Automatic annotation (TrEMBL):
EC annotation from Swiss-Prot or TrEMBL: 3.2.2.31
Cofactor binding note of this UniProt entry: Binds 1 [4Fe-4S] cluster.
CDD domains for this protein: ENDO3c, NUDIX_DNA_Glycosylase_C-MutY
Cofactors required: [4Fe-4S] cluster
Name this protein carries in UniProt: Adenine DNA glycosylase
Database matches in SUPFAM superfamilies: DNA-glycosylase (SSF48150), Nudix (SSF55811)
InterPro entries: A/G_AdeGlyc_MutY, DNA_glycosylase, HhH-GPD_domain, HhH_base_excis_C, MIG/MutY, MutY_C, NUDIX_hydrolase-like_dom_sf
Family: Belongs to the Nth/MutY family.
Function: Adenine glycosylase active on G-A mispairs.
Broad EC category: hydrolase
Reaction(s) this enzyme catalyzes, per UniProt: Hydrolyzes free adenine bases from 7,8-dihydro-8-oxoguanine:adenine mismatched double-stranded DNA, leaving an apurinic site
Pfam families: HhH-GPD, NUDIX_4
Lineage: Bacteria, Bacillati, Bacillota, Bacilli, Bacillales
Length: 383
DNA sequence: AAAACGGGGTC
DNA sequence: GACCCAGTTTT
């Protein structure tokens, strides 16, 4: 078939296949543009199965634009806990507040207006416009680029912005009249269910007869994608600081800075440490105490090693040694007035912990700690 | 154009 | 262990 027939074949058969085979996903049951928006932001760089429970909780906690606009930021962050890329949550709330104030709570259906909202890039704007308003805008994500690169044999590096722009033009051409929302979702559904990254299910593909990549035996080589840089390793020492006296049963936690990695999340105190002293627990523990004192003006006494753990972000790998500690003299000493305070410290007990948002790595450590404590109280089973 | 920005599933 | 996921923002 010629190029035009190939495109037409693709659009028609993909759309039919989608309408007959689409998954029943929570956000597909809604026509609420705000709910669709929430789902699209959650789905950025995140799998469907991971998002589903978060989507239910989030839309229950913040069912409307107004509810999210008026919620305290900490509650929003807590609802996002564990999902990652936390700037998504803060940007979403900021954008929703703008919609609440400037657009009377109505999610804009205009390309320029919606694109100007925080956290709404080319993909998300296209997804909302097409799915919520059925406007013929492309919504090109990783799935779509994989599908198009294979079907049309596009060998440009999909990591390049120029390639995405090219894909968007192509994707827009393919949208069948009046079916933008279904078609865009069909493209992503195919990428997720059939045209998978590895070992695609070509034999059951609804558009296999028009697929140039398949015809040329290239489906395994596409899309072309430059390799990502490996994360840089970092050594970190972590303090599990248990309170005594009036703080008995509580832990000392701190809030991260306003900007940057894990912005405004809460965590166990920890410090980076240079390689030379890494290796023995004694040196690391001593290093931890000294670092917390010099960096945060928090004096802790040397503690016992508790566990080692590892946590990998996209760009950093934390290799962590965790120590049990006690606070030195009195409470934490925030720096003097007028001086920049990089972290805020606070004693919290098990119940209060529920209202603070922690990165998963610290949730893991705290759970491990609680289990050990419970074993001590009940008389340890096993070892 | 490159780096920052989480966390987890999968083969 | 490598790859990748319904990406956006900042540098």
């Amino acid at each position: 078939m010629n190029a035009e027939e190939q495109k037409h074949y693709f659009s028609i058969h993909l759309l039919d296949w989608y309408r007959a085979n689409k998954r029943d996903l929570p956000w597909r049951r809604s026509k609420n543009p705000y709910h669709i928006w929430v789902s699209e932001v959650m789905l950025q760089q995140t799998r469907v199965d991971t998002v589903i429970p978060y989507f239910h909780r989030f839309t229950e906690l913040f069912p409307t634009v107004e509810a999210l606009a008026e919620a305290p930021e900490e509650e929003v962050l807590k609802a996002w806990e564990g999902l990652g890329y936390y700037s998504r949550a803060r940007n979403l709330q900021s954008a929703v507040r703008e919609v609440h104030e400037r657009y009377g709570g109505v999610v804009p259906s205009d390309k320029a207006e919606i694109s100007s909202l925080k956290g709404v890039g080319p993909y998300t704007s296209g997804a909302i416009l097409s799915i919520a308003y059925n406007k013929p805008e492309p919504a090109v994500d990783g799935n779509v680029m994989r599908v198009l690169s294979r079907y049309f044999v596009i060998e440009e590096d999909i990591m390049k912005p120029a390639t995405r722009v090219k894909m968007e033009r192509l994707a827009q051409e393919l949208i069948p009249e009046g079916a933008a929302g279904d078609f865009n979702q069909a493209l992503m559904e195919l990428g997720a269910m059939v045209c998978t990254p590895r070992s695609p299910y070509c034999l059951t593909c609804p558009v296999r007869l028009g697929c140039a990549g398949r015809e040329q035996g290239m489906e395994d080589k596409l899309p072309v994608k430059k390799k990502a840089k490996p994360p840089r390793p970092e050594l970190r020492v972590v303090a599990l600081i248990e309170g005594v006296g009036e703080h008995a049963g509580k832990w000392l936690i701190r809030q991260r800075p306003q900007e940057g990695l894990l912005a405004r999340m809460w965590e166990l105190p920890h410090a980076a440490w240079p390689e030379p002293v890494w290796g023995t627990d004694e040196n690391s523990a001593a290093a931890l105490c000294e670092a917390l004192l010099t960096e945060d003006n928090v004096r802790v006494t040397l503690g016992k090693w508790f566990m080692d753990t590892e946590h990998t972000f996209s760009h950093i790998q934390w290799n962590m040694k965790v120590f049990r500690c006690r606070l030195g003299d009195e409470a934490a000493h925030p720096r003097g007035a007028g001086e920049w305070i990089p972290f805020r410290y606070r004693w919290v007990g098990p119940e209060e912990l529920e209202s603070y948002a922690f990165p998963n790595v610290f949730v893991r450590i705290m759970k491990a700690w609680q289990e050990v404590q419970e074993e001590r109280e009940t008389g340890s089973p096993g070892n």
